[in-house]
Structures are given as C-alpha cells and as structure tokens.
Amino acid sequence: xxxxxMSVEELEKMAVxxxxxxxxxxxxxxxxxPGGSLSAxxxxxxxxxxxxxxxxxxxDWPDRDRFILSKGHACPVWYAALAERGYFDKSHLKTLRQMxxxxxxxxxxxxxxxxxxxxxxxxxxxxxxxxMALSAKLQQKDYHVFVxxxxxxxxxxxxxxxxxxxPRFKLDNLTAILDYNxxxxxxxxxxxxxxxxxxxxWQAFGWNVIDIDGHDMVQVVQALEEARSHQGAxxxxxxxTVKGKGxxxxxxxxxxxxxxxxxxxxxxxxxxxxx
Amino acid sequence: MTINHYHYLRPEINxxxxxxxxxxxxxxxxxxxxxxxxxxxxxxxxxxxVVLDADVSKSIKTNEFADKFPDRSFNFGIAExxxxxxxxxxxxxxxxxxxxxxxVFASMRALDMVRNSIHYPxxxxxxxxxxxxxxxxxxxVTHQGQEDLSIIxxxxxxxxxxxxxxxxxxxxxxxxxxxxxxxxxxxxxDPVPAIFDLNYPFKxxxxxxxxxxxxxxxxxxxxxxxxxxxxxxxxAAKGLNVRVIDCHTLKPLDADVVLAAAAETGAIVTxxxxxxxGGLGSAVAEVLVENNPIPMKRIGVRxxxxxxxPYLDLLEKYGLSAKHIAAAVEEVIERK
Lengths: 275, 336
Description:
The complex is a heterodimer of chains A (275) and B (336). By secondary structure, chain A is α/β, with parallel strands linked by helices. Chain A has one domain (8-274): Rossmann fold. Helix content of chain A is 41%, strand content 11%. Chain A has ten helices and five strands. Chain A has helices at residues 8-29, 34-39, 41-51, 75-85, 125-138, 157-168, 189-192, 198-204, 217-229, 263-274, and strands at 66-69, 145-150, 174-180, 208-213, 235-240. In chain A, helix 6 links the parallel strand 2 and strand 3. In chain A, helix 1 (8-29) crosses helix 3. The longest helix of chain A has 22 residues, at 8-29. Chain A starts with 7 loop residues before the first helix and ends with a helix. With 336 residues, chain B is an alpha/beta fold. Chain B has two domains: 3-26 and 199-335, 3-Layer(aba) Sandwich (Rossmann fold); 28-193, Thiamin diphosphate (ThDP)-binding fold, Pyr/PP domains (Rossmann fold), CATH 3.40.50. In chain B, 42% of the residues lie in helices and 19% in strands. Chain B has 15 helices and 14 strands.
C-alpha cells in the first residue's frame, strides 16, 4: 500500500527534489507562484512522505488522511509532491497550466488524482477541511485532515469563521498549518493588513497552537505528529517560513509571489538548490 | 366549470380558483416548512443526509431535524461562507448536506463558496434557500431574495428547483437527494396554498402542464404558479382557454415543453417572483428567440427593490399578481 515513512534526512532530500520540480514546472509553464510553493515545501513533503496515511494507488480510499492546500495558488508544491509520491507520472509536471492538462493553474479535484479539494479562491480550504473532519466524526472514521493556509489568506473573514467553528465542534482530527512567510501579492503582510499576533488569536479561538521553524524538518515532523495525536481541540501549526525558500534571489522578495523564472534564472535556482 | 382542464390539483383548489377566496380559504403553508417536514422523512430514509444551519433553523423549522437527528445536524452560526465550504467538504466524503439559509445569504453572501467549492467540483450539496423573491413581505429588501435564481442560473453545473406549493416542495426535496450534484432549492417565507397532491409526477427538469389550454400559455414557477392558475380562471370567464405550466425546474429548462407550448398555443407569458433578468423569463425567451419567436411577455420583479409589506399586497404593487399575469396574456394574444 504505502511506502515506508521517510527519515528526516530522506525528507530533507525529497524537499530538495520537490523544490527543483517547482522551479522546473513554473519555468516551463512561464507562469505560476514559486514563492509560496517554496515556503510550504518542507511541510508538504513531511505530510506526503511521512505523516499522512495515504495510498497513491487508491487516491479515493475512503479512510485516507486528507490534505487541502487552501492557498491554492501554491499548487506547484502539491503537484510535485503528488508526482514524486506516485499519484501520477512526473511527465505531467511539464504540462502545468497548459490546455488539456490534469494540472490546472489552481487545484482541481476532478482533474488531478490525489487532490482532495478544489481550491484557488482564498478562505475556502479550512472550511472544507472542517467539513471533512466533521464527516469523520459522524461516520466514526479515524482519518486526519491537514489544511495549509496562507498568512495573506488569513485576511479573509471566512478563515476566522472556520477558526471559530472547529473548536466548537471539537475537531481534534483537523490540523491547520499556517505558512507564515510574511509576504503577499502586493507587499508584506504587515504593511498591507497585519495578522499578528497569530498565536494569541488562534489560542483565543480555542486551538492548540504549535510554533515552529517551518523549514526545520525535525520540528516540522514533530509538530505534525503532535498535532495528529492532540485530543479535544484542533491544532494549528504556525510554520515560520521564508517565501521563496532555497532560491537566493527569490527569498523574501515579494515579486516572486506570482512570477515565473526565465530559463537562466531557473538554472541558477536549480544549481543553488542542488548544492 | 373548467375542472376537466386541470391536472394534479387538489379538489378543494378546483372549486376555490374562481372564487377570489383562494388565499382566504385554502389550506396553506410557507414552503420553508414543507422543506423542513420533508427533511424529517428524508432523514429517516437516508442516513447520509445531514442538515447544516446558519442560525435560522427556528425560522425554517430545521430545528425539528436537529431535535430528531442531533448527530446529523450542524449549526454553523451566522457564518454562511463557512457553512457552504464545509458542506462541500462533507460532500466529498459521501454525505449529502442540505445547507440551509435564506436566499440572499445562500446566493450572495456565500456565492464565492457556492461557485468555487460546490459547483466547480460538482459536489453533492443541496442548497436550501428560503425567503425567495419578495415573499418575505414584512422583512423588507435585505431579506427578499429576488436575484438568487438568476445568479445561480449563471453558474455551470447548477440545477435549480423552485417548487410551487407544499406537496411539490416535498417532492423536490426528495428528488434532490437522488440526484448526484449540486441542487439549489428555493422556498417561500410566506404561506402559499396547497394546490397539488402528492401524485404530482415530479421529475427534475420536466415541466408539468397543470392546466390545458390552446389560446396562450403561462409558464410560471414557485409562488406564481398559483397566481397563474387564478389568472387562467379569470381568462376562462372571458372565453380564453389558457395553458398553465409549472416550470418548477428553472435549470435545466424543459425546452421541449416550452416549444410545444409555443407551437400549440402561439403566445407565452412567463411569471416569476424574481427579477426579470436572468430567471425564468429570460430562460424561456432564450429558447423561443432561437427556435420559434412567438409573442411573449415576462412577468417578474422589474428593475427595482421592493419594500416591507403584506405578501399579497406586494405582489399587487410590484406587478406579480394574477391580475397582471392575465393582462399580459391578453396582450400577447392580441399580438398573435
């Protein structure tokens, strides 16, 4: 069914491969969102190669853990993880955003094996995950639902509707991961519409909050394991991350939110990542 | 006098239609309550059915479902966006959520979720929308869902049902559970007469001729079906024999029935308690203009907001009553 969970060292190597896939596919597509894909890579890698109970041969397995990338524009990281995990052939990555591709510009659950929820319009995914977690409770299933949300996305009011509801429904089978990379499309989150203090806010809403370095694989794995076993309330992992992580000229640079690297830039990025 | 022309009408309605006392004497119910009653039965039959509320369960009476099936009822509070996207998530696991609120909130406050999380992935969510049209008479404009049918109709993968009365509301609610995909169900806040019996042959997408006629056709939905029947009765007194079609499913529109009415009666009036852009009138006009452009007139809410007031008085003032429908029929017959 599923392959052996990876060690931290193996996960770190896989994260490099996935980051390279992200650069490759966005460069080929000449469009896409590298910054937020690279910031979320370590979390997504840990989920797909160690934490989640999944079966790539059987993507609709009713008892599988669910994953939702609520910040859907970062789907290159999701597509790369699914391809590396064997949900579909890696050759599809080159078709990102092209006509007829199974890999749409934003995630489409009807087109891509392994995509558990269609996203793209921000502020939906946490609610959808909440619905899945409610279903699990009702149907007495023990799967867990993981949702990655963005910090810019947290400006959407619906995020806070969901944050209010999940503890009320005692959804300890729901884990949110905030990809806290501090940049959004227009500028820094702090300058546009600050969301801090996020830890206090989520705690006040009744969540178990874990604050980590979202690029330290030991911390990422530990936090996800703790979240999965936490009882009585949902968990949010505040993953402090760097937008564009791993590519020097993209790190903490706002314009790489939604810009594709040209071939020369991609070559430089791949060289840096593989070092 | 015209009893033989009708189909599926309850006997007491036959005798009241011409009397001007239909709303005074007929058995009536707001169809939101018919929905809630239907859910009690559906909950028994289908364990996959769950009800999601947004703090109007006492108004719609889905609190009775919550009492009967506490594990399968979820009140999201005043947070329709969260409710709609959560319904989508629940549907991915095989449950059949009925997300319940008022039309204005279902179709506008939560529209982004309704479009992107429910209709785009074609998830099996039923959207139960009360307070359709200007029937929330006393509540005023903020609670009058006069645009929702047009808005939802513009979304791909949508199926829209606006049943006329308590019996057909129940049939619609049950039929929706058997259909795999999003269904938008539209109900009234105000009482409407129980005109049909449960033998009504309800099928999603199939409009039903409920009164025979050959001089013109009225194609109506939700609460204006009864107004259309009253109009037809008045016209009969003038010697005009008018067909009435209950077009409960707005989308997909039953083009066959529309075109048959066009061919056989030569003139059509549409009647809807909804803005006359993008709803039933537009849908029928689209079919006619491309196939058989006969004389036609649309009865609907003109380009205006209404106001607070008693339901029947609002229908009069905003041009939606049997009187207006009858006048429109005479006009299209004149233009034949």
